[in-house]
Specification:
By secondary structure, the protein is an alpha/beta fold. The chain is built from eleven helices and eleven strands. The strands form two sheets. A six-stranded parallel sheet has the order 8-7-6-9-10-11. The protein has a five-stranded parallel sheet with strand order 2-1-3-4-5, with helices on one face. α8 links the parallel β9 and β10. The longest helix is centred in the middle third of the chain and has 22 residues.
Length: 275
């Protein structure tokens, strides 16, 4: 098969490497800071691909492609309009791009439940490493708050619990609150975080919404570490946290940072399942 791999972080690099090793015809674009040979827009326009693989997330500003390993920015619509009648895969795609463009079909592979669950496991590993590297205490016996009980929240809270932390998890649904208690952890309502926030040494946010308000930040311990795992608009205001001199770590796309080869394999498996 013929593939085009465009932009992204090291996950895309390993996806391209894997495809090449497997004998697929693979063109690469938007990764010119790597050792992979790059194709050109003119060649892309004149090539029929079986699938095009864009990064996860697709974009950080909803205009340009997410391509930190490229020396210049790529406009998403210009790239999409240069492709001809193919399936295009990408991750975390804004709705404005989710429509056929020149007979192309754009598929968000992060809608795949199996991928999301496996990605949550990789994110958990990265979150634990981030905490260890950015605090002066052990996770063991630390008072940890995990904000949110989605896929990442479930995986991360259980890992923290296994490591011997005193784990509190915030959630909104009654079913989630019951499950948290059943799994041996303390539960609180997300709306009541500000009441309990002064108890925690390490806080992990997994909710892409302002669930930790400015007043709550003012009541944090002076030596707290807050690790942001969610995407924009994030769980708290960064400027407020900085003004309070809190130790805040923004840690998006941890699988791409700490386990890009494994993350690439998961993405590629999902793509082949959908071709």
């Amino acid at each position: 098969m013929r593939f085009l791999v465009v932009g992204g972080d090291l996950r895309q690099y390993y996806i391209a490497q894997s495809l090449k090793t497997s004998g697929h015809l693979t063109d690469v674009f938007g990764l010119d800071k790597t050792d992979l040979e790059q194709t050109t827009i003119d060649k892309i326009k004149n090539t029929k691909y079986d699938a095009v693989i864009l990064p996860m997330p697709l974009s950080l500003d909803q205009i340009h492609l997410n391509c930190p390993l490229n020396s210049y920015k790529l406009v998403i619509t210009e790239l999409l309009n240069s492709l001809n009648n193919t399936k295009i895969f990408g991750g975390i795609i804004n709705e404005k791009f989710l429509k056929p463009i020149n007979h192309n079909t754009l598929i968000d592979f992060t809608k795949d439940e199996e991928l999301l669950l496996e990605n949550a496991q990789l994110t958990t590993e990265g979150a634990l490493l981030t905490a260890i590297q950015n605090t002066n205490r052990a996770i063991y016996k630390s008072n940890c708050l995990c904000v949110g009980y989605g896929r990442i929240g479930k995986s991360l809270s259980q890992a923290l619990n296994t490591l011997g932390a005193n784990v509190t998890v915030s959630a909104r649904k009654a079913t989630d609150l019951k499950a948290i208690c059943k799994n041996g952890m303390t539960q609180i309502l997300t709306s009541e975080i500000d009441i309990y926030i002064n108890k925690f040494d390490i806080i992990f946010n997994t909710v892409p919404a302002r669930v930790i308000n400015d007043e709550a930040l003012k009541h944090c311990k002076n030596d707290v570490t807050i690790i942001e795992l969610a995407s924009a608009p994030f769980g708290f205001d960064r400027e407020t946290a900085n003004s309070l001199k809190l130790n805040t770590i923004y840690a998006p796309s941890l699988p791409g940072k700490y386990s890009p080869k494994s993350a690439g394999e998961i993405i590629l498996k999902t793509i082949f399942k959908n071709i």
